[in-house]
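Deliverable D4.2, example record:
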Amino acid sequence: MPKMGSKKLKICISWSMLIWVVVVLSLHHLVGCQDVGDYNEINNPAVLPLITQFVYSRMSNLTAVISRDISNRSTFCIKDPEADWNQAFNFSSNLDFLTKCIQKTGGDITRRICTAAEMKFYFNNFFQPSSIDNYLKPNKNCNLTSWVSGCEPGWACSIGLNQPVDLENSKEIPARTRSCQTCCEGFFCPHGLTCMIPCPLGSHCPLSRLNRATGVCEPYSYQLPPGQPNHTCGGANIWADVGSSSEIFCLAGSYCPTTVQKISCSSGTGSTSETPCFKLTSCNANSPSQNIHAYGIMLL
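Output generated by the structure prediction step:
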């Protein structure tokens, strides 16, 4: 009997070791593929969560680099830049939007996300008040001699297959003009850049739909380029302060627990969660404001 128990134990250990080896090899394959942009297991439900976590870790490293750069230039108005940035870009509680984007792009999502150099190029616009709203300076991919469909608002492209990807490279914008398509939900793709930037928490960045009466891609305000009948409305195209643009912010009377969800408030309004009404007030469903008649009576 002891021999039989020992045999079962060896079988269990061997099976556990086999599972561990498979997981390690899968992770090793992912790391090896990070510069190839080809995740062969994206349709495998057992491996897809690992791929999602891997992509998220790379995206987190990227946003950390940008956070340091922006905080150095805006310490006059931000008390705790790290905490503020974490509230805007800590998606760890729900990565569904990232998983869907991995599947939509066929696994080459890391070839479509903006590098540190591209994000700095975009955010530098906020520190140049004289620049024209919503327009970026010409760059390697979008200029007078090169203007692919990914340069249009709400669209993005991929880096070439043989080109290594370094998301943390803050010096040089990579050549990115291949396999252009609509921006993923939960990301925004600026006019004049061919890459994707994650939308901050508290915003709502779904795919847009063409309003044939106005010619506008709603809920945003850009239009399709003329003379390109095969071009379609894409994703979000801008992130700015609410004074400059309110296109991607969660609408009043609703809250957005993720950047791809918009839920009507049952009371009051909010950004990433519902906000309770003040005492002695009432709030109707899907309402952006409170009924404060009681306060008026008290003042009288």
